[in-house]
Amino acid sequence: MRVVGLHRDVLVATSRIWQTTCTIVRSGEEGFVIDSPVLPDELEMLPAVLEHAGFAFNGLLATHADFDHLLGRLAFTGAAVGVCETTAARLAAEPGAAARELRAFDDEHYVQRAAPLSLGQVQALPVPGHCAVGEAEIELHPADGHTADGMALWVPWARVLVCGDYLSPVEIPWIADGGSRSAYLATLARLAALVEQAEYVVPGHGAVLDATRAAAILREDVAYLEALPDAQLPIARRSAAQRKIHAENVSRA
After folding, report:
1. Would you tell me how many other CB atoms lie within 10 Å of the CB of residue 155?
2. Alpha carbon of 210 to those of 1, 45, 188, 189, 238: distances in Å?
3. What is the dihedral of CA 211, 202, 19, 114, to 10 degrees?
4. In 3-state terms, what secondary structure has residue 91?
5. What domain count does the chain have?
6. Among 29, 123, 152, 215, which residue's CB has the most CB atoms within a 10 Å radius?
7. 15 vs 24: CA distance, rounded Å
8. By the 8 A CB rule, do 203 and 165 touch?
9. pLDDT of 36-48, one tens digit each?
């Protein structure tokens, strides 16, 4: 797991699998962990990363209900998980889905864990809205389209945008089960204004971006979605895995 500092109040840890990102934000004596790394040793290391950096921990936030973003509870047992209302509704409608998906992932990759995933207390947050951290507030913005749920988080004092599974340099736009092209395009339109203000953009998968690179990916993603089902894949995202996602997108477009 690679950990980088974007600001005195923001760290980003990137998992060795799927380049899934986990963003750690603090203000004063309070802090939140947004999303999660994936592998057991990475999750075991996470509390030590916060302690070494002098970051307080007050709770977990998740951008959406895909299992690879919900694993913070394995690192911080008993912590509450804050999610947007649409994610809370998805979790309630699909009880145990994240745990089953994690078991399937572990079976496929021969991963052993000390305990199964249990989400425990889930707190629904109104979006659009704000989440207080110390004397500051993180802005919460709706971000559906990839799935039926989701939020992006804007950290204004650090000018960092945590956008979930959007604006990835390694993954094309993915219209997963419950998502839609029109909702995805609407989310990109909302994110565009935040990207213009950002110093850094943290995608759900892939390296942290500066605003210029994030804006370029946003333009590519809009062009790709608007051209479906006849879209060409962006040049830097034409792997076999991305062609498989593209085929799924075409079936749903």
Report:
1. 26
2. 21, 27, 16, 18, 22
3. 170
4. helix
5. 1
6. 152
7. 14
8. yes
9. 999 999 999 999 9
Q: pTM score, two decimals?
A: 0.95
Strands 160-162 and 151-155: antiparallel
Q: What CATH code is carried by the domain that includes residue 44? A: 3.60.15.10
**Per-residue pLDDT tens over the stretch 167-225:** 999 999 999 989 999 999 999 999 999 999 999 999 999 999 999 999 999 999 999 99
Helices 181-197 and 211-227, packing angle to 10 deg: 160
Whether the Cβ atoms of residue 225 and residue 204 lie closer than 8 Å to each other: no
Q: For residue 55, which of 15, 76, 24 has the smallest C-alpha distance?
A: 24
The two three-digit tokens of residue 210, written as one number: 């500066």
Return d(Cα 43, Cα 225) in angstroms, integer.
Answer: 34
Tokens at 130, concatenated: 């704000």
Residue in the block written with tokens 């979605």: 225
Going from the C-alpha of 229 to that of each of 74, 82, 114, the distances in angstroms are 39, 36, 43
Cis, peptide link before residue 229, omega less than 30° from 0: yes
Considering only CA atoms, which of 45, 105, 115 is closest in space to residue 69? 105
State the Rg of the chain over Cα: 17
Nearest CA to 105 among 39, 168, 164, 16? Answer: 39
**Sign (positive or negative) of CA dihedral 214, 219, 220, 224:** positive
**To the nearest 10°, the Cα dihedral for 43, 166, 4, 111?**
30
Closest CA to 113 of 49, 67, 44, 61: 44
For residue 157, give its domain range.
2-252
CB 116 within 8 A of CB 75: no
